[in-house]
Specification:
38% helix
Length: 286
């Protein structure tokens, strides 16, 4: 489901790794080209606001001094995931509605060459993007406390401000239709202007080899985009691109139903979490 070069950074030759700064510059140019193509005319395009405020290409060349080859490879994988996810989300044609909840939450899907079926959640949340970003990125390891579909999220390694490698363990679905899975992912978190991004894809990490008795699933590219609502900046247009290979022998029809429902459930659990945070803040203020 994922190109082998995306799965394992060690596939890059050492000669090229020694010139990783040049590779990163090439990746940044590619992302910049994609953003130019995405922006287009019209204020409704979500990416145009990112470009007006700031660029995703803010260079961290100075930070790279002292990075190991392993660290640099994770940074590049995260940027690759972001670039690919932005490209998928920018294409508005070809999406099919999977489900629409009573509150307007919507899940769409499309089939992509070399990727397979991807899902896109579109919801409006009564929260500012910064608050959501802090919860999903700053408090990432607490996700198991409020999302019953997740047993655990652990940060294995952080590289700079934008990149981290995580290990996630999912809970089994009701009736154990889909048993627990675990994932090792590289994540790229960006906050540019008033729009926030959290992209990711599967990787490998020496601290987390495959576990006996647990199916190692793969994901990516994935990306959450949190953009202020044009009518009310304290609300957020929340988009979540999901691409997962759960492995095993589960029929695809069941997997697709589970994934779309998981996205709807996630939005509801996140709303409840944010509402509880507000209640706790109010209680502390009294």
């Amino acid at each position: 489901m994922l190109p082998a070069t995306f799965k394992l950074c060690a596939g890059i030759s050492y000669r090229h790794m020694r010139n990783m700064t040049g590779l990163r510059k090439n990746a940044m140019v590619a992302i910049h080209h994609e953003l130019n193509r995405l922006a287009g005319p019209g204020p409704s395009n979500w990416i145009s606001q990112v470009r007006r405020r700031s660029s995703l290409l803010s260079s961290r060349i100075k930070e790279e001094d002292g990075y190991s080859e392993e660290e640099m490879s994770y940074v590049k994988q995260g940027e690759d995931a972001l670039q690919k996810a932005i490209g998928i989300l920018s294409e508005q044609d070809g999406w099919t509605i999977e489900t629409v909840a009573a509150n307007g939450d919507k899940v769409l899907s499309k089939v992509l060459p070399d990727v397979g079926k991807v899902f896109k959640l579109e919801v409006m949340l009564e929260q500012h993007p910064e608050n959501l970003y802090e919860e999903l990125v700053g408090n990432m390891e607490q996700m198991g406390e409020w999302n019953p579909n997740v047993k655990q999220v652990k940060i294995l390694q952080k590289i700079g401000q934008d990149t981290m490698v995580t290990h996630e363990v999912s809970a089994e679905t009701p009736g154990n239709v889909v048993g627990p899975r675990d994932f090792v992912s590289v994540r790229c978190a960006k906050r540019r202007g008033s729009t926030c991004f959290l992209a990711g894809m599967s990787t490998q990490h020496p601290r987390m080899p495959e576990q006996r008795g647990v199916v190692r699933a793969e994901n990516g590219p994935t990306c959450i985009v949190m953009k202020p609502c044009a009518e009310d900046p304290n609300k957020t247009k929340f988009t979540w691109l999901l691409s997962i290979d759960l492995k095993g022998w589960i029929p695809k029809t069941i997997i697709h139903k589970v994934l779309s429902q998981t996205q709807v459930d996630f939005a509801n659990h996140l709303r409840q979490r944010m509402a509880n945070n507000v209640s706790m803040e109010m209680a502390h203020a009294c």
